[in-house]
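Hi V.,

Quick status before I head out on leave. The structure for the redesign project is tokenized and pasted below; the design run finished overnight.
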């Protein structure tokens, strides 16, 4: 369990920054006239909406795609493909960002 700022205990989020995920993008009802949900795969860059109280109704996730655009999805409609840090290309920073080059003593 994770303790929130208001002292409530809640389960930890199912995804971490840098996790590779697959899902269907979330399009709010008022935008569906112009946008359609679409399948995606990418790297988690934000867990939660970023706005207090919003996640109580909808748990959101933001994912960066290979073309550097981002998609919002509902956690309930997203699945883990590969945990962060499992791919050697991720380096120690995760999210597909290589870490600093090793320094040799000398």
């Amino acid at each position: 369990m994770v303790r929130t700022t208001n002292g409530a205990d809640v389960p930890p989020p199912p995804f971490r920054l840098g996790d590779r995920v697959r899902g269907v993008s979330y399009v709010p009802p008022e935008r569906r006239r112009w946008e359609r949900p679409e399948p995606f795969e990418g790297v988690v860059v934000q867990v939660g909406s970023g706005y207090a109280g919003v996640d109580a109704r909808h748990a959101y996730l933001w994912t960066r795609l290979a073309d550097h655009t981002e998609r919002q999805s509902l956690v309930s409609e997203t699945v883990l493909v590969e945990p962060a840090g499992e791919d050697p290309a991720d380096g120690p920073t995760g999210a597909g960002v290589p870490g600093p080059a090793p320094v040799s003593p000398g």
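Above is the designed sequence. Residues 90-101 have pLDDT under 50 and may be disordered.

G. will cover questions while I'm gone.

Best,
W.
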